[in-house]
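For consistency, the fold was encoded as tokens, which produced the following:
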Amino acid sequence: MRYVQEFRDPTTAKVLLAEIARVADQIGATPEKPVHIMEICGGHTHAIFRYGLDRLTHPGIEFIHGPGCPVCVLPMARVDECVELAQQPGVIFCTFGDAMRVPGTKKSLMQAKADGCDIRMVYSPLDALELARRNPNREVIFFGLGFETTTPSTALTIQQAAREGLTNFTVFCNHITVPPPIKALLDDPHMVLDGFVGPGHVSMVIGIHPYDFIARDYGKPIVVAGFEPLDLLQSVLMVLIQIRDGRAEVENQYSRIVPEHGNPVSIAAIEDVYEKRPSFAWRGLGEIDESGLQIQAKYAAFDAEAKFGIGYGAEVAREVEEPDGCACSQVMTGRIKPIACPQFGQCCTPEMPLGALMVSSEGACAAYYQYGGGRPLEAAE
């Protein structure tokens, strides 16, 4: 922990906060005319509110919470399809814990488990692969979910299943990619964004150059950031300095973890196993071209959509409307804050969620609920 504490030092935080305030004043940021900085990753959202950074930073800086939580952006139709797969005879359905309580139109995976489906929480796709080895007479389906961060582990697991010739293991692939939804937000005429704090874990896999279009085509600065409070404060400062200097570049604050060109082993596994879908539905954003991944034909034996004729492998795609009163889509696109949703803390709580943003450990609504809209570090007040 002593190494982590270096990135939580209150004295250094005060220096960074003072410099942020100085640069914010230089560019004329005020509460009436704030600088809008979107943190793309849900992990950053939770860190901002856990450490009260929204309260500590200059009042002319407004954090916009982006669609950087893969559980949150999953449309309800895909949850319904998970439940449908889990209800198949002889199936063991495996999922990460975050997805267990995401509501579908009728029930969540947790409720389906309570109704008798064999649904198991795992910590890795390799756990699901081991279940397939131990249960040769059962169909084991892994719920492949996440951005580029978790995509390589699923790809490597599929490669291992192919090497072993396992015929009872498949993946329900819902892996998605970060750059396309950022472009969709930048193309939205209603969005006002001045800069970005880029996702650290995703960038650890893909590097920093997939974000070049943000600076090159849209003239917006982006700084790939770590997850500790000093990481985020430094990244905000770097964004502000770019704005002050009239620059738009991709910078890497998280260089201790993120290599410029990403992880070549992970990238190779992704390219071998997956290909881009023509389009993929995002909760709150709709269909976005080439934003999702599907399993290539050479690994079709491990594709649950193809094997069970469900999802994008079905003859007719399923469309599901969001529940009445749910404002997840507006929160995810930065149009409103979670507390502006009339259901927040009333009909929608972590115990009884109406939408995915209240469920996920990276959801903006869960962050607001857990941390009360942010509470500053005592030592930094």
